[in-house]
């Protein structure tokens, strides 16, 4: 059988970094082919070249035996290549049918298109109402929009860039059903992920990238997850160590916390109650957009609530701003590194000042103590192994993993009594992620209460003592994390919403 | 005060004339903002259009040619803004403000020797039979071509945005330029087209002031009309028909307060003069308030710098 897509010696360099270095691999028709690698390994650049978004510096591609050099996505789509993006390429204020039409070359009139969307969505068990505004849809539903947009063009090669990062385990199951059905019909699927179990469950072949180079290829069904991880990272990974520790008294208590959404497409928090003890890590899971950002804002003080909704050692603090909360050792590290946790164009020293000025005494009578601030920034850099030329560097210049280590380290070193982090290891390479998790566990061991909000379930199971899930702004009752199965967690996260029904029908 | 001196038929007919410059500028700016660009230079483009149109009309004796050149002048100034903001990625707010100041100065320079000259008359459209209808004929069927063109533009823009694929792409670019780029749409090219269109509309609006409404050239004659156009676009929640409503409301109150002044109303002239601005904004604020979803019509990428990073 001849390959559907052949990639030979594809190279793409950016100033200072070679994103892809002579990458070669084949994709067979009907094959589910995994591109496996850490963040920054060059997976996204590679598929952007196949989709015509980025022009390779050298190398060549053939599609069905013919030379394939898409100058723009339009050309790639015309050849039967479709792509589902990692960050959705959707327009929130437009409805489903309009979003689909934007991704097609010659869309039929809206009413015909709506009928076709219904037809295709039912065929593949992905129910979708063409008239709904995308901003009102859940993450899983949004992904259906993207997939249906691709399916309507009858693709020969479907590229999926980290498609499951926003789905519940049940939704992942349904997505895999759809993908298997497509593959059985002869569509090749190029599946990008760093989730090893998924790749083992779904893919027929895998190409492993590290630092822009193909380092290996294998049949993932014959490898263990640990073996795949080693190929991906190139070294053995150390799992975070969990010291046995006694839980102390209750540090923070939430009692019926409710919060209206801050933006039109935001999620309200509804009646959230839980307690975290000293030395305990509470993991909060859930699909993105179910109130994670809002919960962090309520805990950090960015959003205020009635005073009694949040209590620290029994004292009401719900009405306090972030700075008064810092004063009483309630600290937070939000999800978005650039622009929320750190000011991108300010130096690391300045960024250290921004949250640590109060607790570290870096400002006196409104004047800054620069030497002390610099020393504190250097202490973070040293303690947390942040790779940067110095504390004078702009936050923007750091890689995601290094900046995340800095942002978490900045809060941890301020000796919080309660630390709240959202997505502490999102987009961070495996070694840095392990270091961050270890730091959070060490912090808890030293007697702080830690709340970890994350969409990475493996991470939550690894470090949390108790687990709860956010679903449409409601929090489930926390359960001990030991012995929880993925399926139980999926049900806590709200199951598959309305997908399950269609699944049974299909 | 003698209210009987105010002729309602003439009042309605002249409110259309008074509203047309703002309507033209606002409908152009609506398209620009729908593409995600905030061009605060409407005032500058309007007055540049006013002086270009006036000079060309005086020199050639043809108001039609004047309007064409006014549109070109406005578009040229807008493309300067486009070059700065889209390619050189300057800040849109600062550049727009700069464009207004630049346009005011440039127009004063060009128009120096044209102060006090009268413009060649723009012919009214006399439609046989229809123009002779009582009341309706005077109100609806005896204006110059630009009034009808401005109304056609509103209808055209509304249809473009609501029904056409080009309009859908324009809205998509304004909503999420990164996603539009990822789908392979030429964000910068689409925005430049919108910016040029907005400039041409503002230029036409300016020329309507200097060639029809006044019709004379005086320095700074737009007197804030561009700013009102900008405000109307926002308070009309980026809807074409509401822009029409806002512009006609403003025009109507302008004409009414002039008539009241002439009729010797017992209200201070200053209050009357500011009433169009006040009432228009008030009405539009009331209309767009109370509905949180109205804000959703705002293009989400409005004013944000786009840089294709791959």
Strand content range of chain B = under 5%
Biggest beta-sheet profile of chain B = none
Q: CATH superfamily membership of the largest domain in chain A, which one?
A: P-loop containing nucleotide triphosphate hydrolases
Total strands of chain B: 0
Q: What spatial form of chain A do the alpha-carbon principal axes imply? A: globular
Unreliable stretches of chain A, pLDDT < 50, 5 or more residues? 497-506
Quote the beta fraction of chain A: 15-25%
Derived structural class of chain B: mainly alpha
Q: How would you describe the overall organization of this protein?
A:
The complex is a heterodimer of chains A (506) and B (310). Chain A has 506 residues and is α/β, with parallel strands linked by helices. Chain A has 17 helices and 23 strands. In chain A, helix 11 (348-356) packs across helix 12 and helix 12 packs across helix 13. Chain B has 310 residues and is mainly alpha-helical. Helix content of chain B is 68%, strand content 0%. Chain B has helices at residues 8-34, 42-60, 63-87, 92-110, 136-140, 145-163, 165-175, 177-182, 187-213, 225-235, 240-262, 269-288. The longest helix of chain B has 27 residues, at 8-34. The radius of gyration of chain B is 20 Å and the shape is globular. The interface between A and B is medium-sized, with 25 and 22 residues.
